[in-house]
């Protein structure tokens, strides 16, 4: 059913060739799907899609409070093992190898 919904959305914005691909996948699985057959005929003819009856959207209440959401994320801890500045030494103080442009290993010595 996801192919059908995707095809309907694509047809609403005029992308018929992409809708045909999705309808083809649906009709390969169910060749007698009535809605898919109607939409396929419409997409192949280049006609606008058949409008389906839409149920009115329900109001969800108050609009989303972006300031409150931002306040909820103020206390998030920074990810572990992420350094602000890359270091040439590991945590034991040893130098790390770095590949050069000639693919030979060069060494950086920590100060």
Keywords:
single chain; 111 residues; mainly alpha; two-stranded antiparallel sheet; elongated
Explain what the structure shows.
The chain is mainly alpha-helical and 111 residues long. The protein has a domain at 2-45. Helix content is 40%, strand content 5%. The chain has a two-stranded antiparallel ribbon with strand order 1-2. The longest helix is centred in the N-terminal third of the chain and has 14 residues, at 16-29.
Treating each run of at least 4 consecutive H or I residues as one helix, how many helices?
A: 4
Structural class: mainly alpha
Q: Are there runs of 5+ residues with pLDDT below 50, and where?
A: none
Total strands: the figure is: 2
Radius of gyration: 28 Å
Distance between the termini: 63 Å
What order do the SSEs take from the amino end to the carboxyl end, as H and E?
HHHHEE
Query: Could you give a short account of the major beta sheet?
Result: 2 strands, antiparallel
Mean pLDDT: 75
Oligomer: single chain
Strand share of the residues? 5-15%
Strand order of the largest sheet: 1-2
Please state the overall shape, judged from the principal axes of the Cα atoms.
elongated
Tell me the helix content: 25-40%
């Amino acid at each position: 059913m996801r192919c059908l919904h995707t095809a309907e959305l694509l047809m609403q914005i005029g992308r018929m060739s992409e809708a045909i691909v999705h309808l083809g996948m649906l009709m390969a699985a169910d060749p007698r799907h009535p809605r898919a057959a109607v939409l396929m005929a419409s997409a192949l003819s280049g006609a606008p899609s058949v409008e389906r009856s839409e149920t009115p959207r329900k109001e969800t209440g108050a609009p989303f409070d972006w300031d409150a959401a931002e306040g909820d994320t103020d206390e998030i801890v920074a990810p572990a093992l992420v350094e602000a500045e890359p270091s040439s030494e590991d945590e034991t103080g040893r130098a790390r190898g770095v590949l050069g442009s000639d693919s030979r290993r060069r060494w950086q010595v920590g100060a």
